[in-house]
Amino acid sequence: MANEFNKKGDYIGYRAEKGLNRKIVTDISERKNEPGWMTDFRLKALDIFEAKPMPSWGADLSDLDHHDIHYYVQSVKGKHSSWEDVPDDIKATFDKLGIPQAEREMLAGVGAQFDSEVIYKRLKDKWAKKGVVFLDTDSGLKEYPELFKKYFSTVIPSHDNKFAALNSAVWSGGSFVYVPSGVQVDLPLQAYFRIESSQMGQFERTLIIAEPKSSIHYVEGCSAPVSRNNSLHSAVVELVALPDSHIRYTTIQNWSSNVYNLVTKRAIAHERASVDWVDGNFGSKVTMKYPCIILKGEQSRGQIISIAVAGKDQQQDAGGKIIHCASNTTSNIVSKSISKNGGRTTYRGLLKVIKNLKNIVSRVQCDALLMDGASRTDTYPTVDIKSDQVDIGHEASVSKINDEQLVYLMSRGLSSQEAQAMIVNGFIDCFVKELPMEYAVEINRLIKMEMEDSIG
Length: 456
Description:
Blueprint: E1 2-5, E2 11-15, H1 22-31, H2 36-51, E3 73-74, H3 88-96, H4 99-106, E4 109-114, E5 117-123, H5 125-128, E6 133-136, H6 137-143, H7 145-151, H8 162-170, E7 175-179, E8 189-194, E9 201-202, E10 205-210, E11 215-223, E12 231-233, E13 236-241, E14 246-255, E15 259-262, E16 264-269, E17 274-283, E18 286-289, E19 292-295, E20 301-310, E21 315-318, E22 321-324, E23 330-339, E24 344-353, E25 360-370, E26 376-385, E27 390-400, H9 403-411, H10 416-427, H11 429-432, H12 437-451
Parallel strand pairs: 4-8, 7-10, 8-11, 9-12, 10-13, 11-14, 12-15, 13-16, 14-17, 15-18, 16-19, 17-20, 18-21, 19-22, 20-23, 21-24, 22-24, 23-25, 24-26, 25-27
Antiparallel strand pairs: 1-2, 2-3, 4-5, 6-7
Helix pairs in contact: 1-2, 2-8, 6-7, 9-10, 10-12
């Protein structure tokens, strides 16, 4: 690994050599000046990653060469709390995405990650004064070491799966959020993740802790420019919802068609806590993502609402998992998928109820929309019920775009693309209703672009 400076001595970049070994992992940890326990954690995770085989189920990962990836890229030196201090070229990228405007108008705080490092993080004073913490995860480790160590890797251990192990070995950036007891953050926090470099891996690590009777809504957006070479995004997200708290985690990902999006996201809900995953997947070459909620405490509640859109040469393998570990718990999974131009979507879900529980209520609904005869959709639901006193419902549907609806809408003056976009927006209405107004508008814009084949 080596710094790169121009002739004037200005910092212009830092990039690890391709491939993965103990030296690269150690260098990442040393560069971040981490405590010894984190270095040891990373190296142990590397051993786990190397020992675990590549997944043989799900999406085709045969073209993903993990030796042909830069596992750490720092494009910008330092972190900034003022948007004006961010370098102009990177600021222009995020300006186009509306991040500064959103911060001023509707968000409690904003973070921006560029390649491997968070370059900007700011929490409004109102919430900082109430004890809310919104930092990049590297800073969370340094500034809140005891709290960080108490919860880090407790929801998703390194050995959970091969890509969780990879993230644990090379993680960088992400968000560390802590909400004190009784604090209700009534505006969303947003983090935005951008892969700008080709043939790199982005491995942010996010940890959100909601103390009793608190609430938080966290929104993340992701994107990357189109490149000829593959890139990898492999995040780990851990949510801890303590008694009577509420966490909502909204994702709108719009990766380009060269990105493998292989992430692990999981929440634990304690007594009377509630967790909502609202998950939108657009773009990427391959996505494998199954947000999970473990209902650990009585009267806890979990909900996963997701959409996935797959176009040409894309596979969206997504869904949700809810595990009932306590009585008097409720859950709901709604999954919507859209396949077009030969794209493939897959719903892969799990609903599990362990033994000797009472008064369990759960509903699972997965609906697929095929836009043409060349596209494909598959459903792999797993329902594992070990208790008797349950009320469980599961339904699935596959439908094609309705020609009569298209003809009618086009007779009212809409183009074919506009008519298709209107039908699709109706199909995903349950997802859009869960978004703040500004994000609902963004989803409608993305759907319109998809129908015009201009996304990416």
